[in-house]
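Good morning C.,

I know you're traveling, so I'll keep this short. The sequence:
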Amino acid sequence: MLKIYLSGEIHTDWRDQIIAGASGLNVSFSAPVTDHDASDDCGVAIMGAEDQNFWHDHKGAKLNAIRTRKGIEEADIVVVRFGEEYKQWNAAFDAGYAAALGKSLIVMHQDEHQHALKEVDAAALAVVQTPQQVIDILSYVETGQLP
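The C-alpha cells, ready to paste straight into the viewer:
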C-alpha cells in the first residue's frame, strides 16, 4: 500500500477529490489538520493561553509540526498544493522537508505561481495543476497503466 501525505492549501476540496478519485487504488492518505481555527488554536487550547500572538502561533505551529513531521516521514509520496488565494509558506516548508528526506514529491499549483515556486518545482518529481492529474499519477505508479 502506498502512503500519501496531502499537504498545503486548506480552503478547497482538492484533498476530497483525490481521495475519492483514488478509491480503487491500494493507497492510504494522511494530512494536516484542515480545520483552520483548530490548527491555529491547538497550542493554546491544550497548553494554555498566551498574551502575545507570537507565542499563541508558536505553540500551535509546534503541535502541528508533530503531526506534519510524522505524516511526511511515513509517506511514500507527498503531494503539496499551493492555492491561488493565500500564501502557503508552510506548504513550501513541507515540500522542502519532503525533498530533504528523499520523498517522492508531487507539487500542484496554477501557472501564475510558476516563477515564485521554481525551486520547489525543481525538487518535485511531478508538477501538476489538477487533482485529476494526481489521481492519474497515483494510478500509473500503482498499475503501470496509462489513464
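Safe travels,
E.
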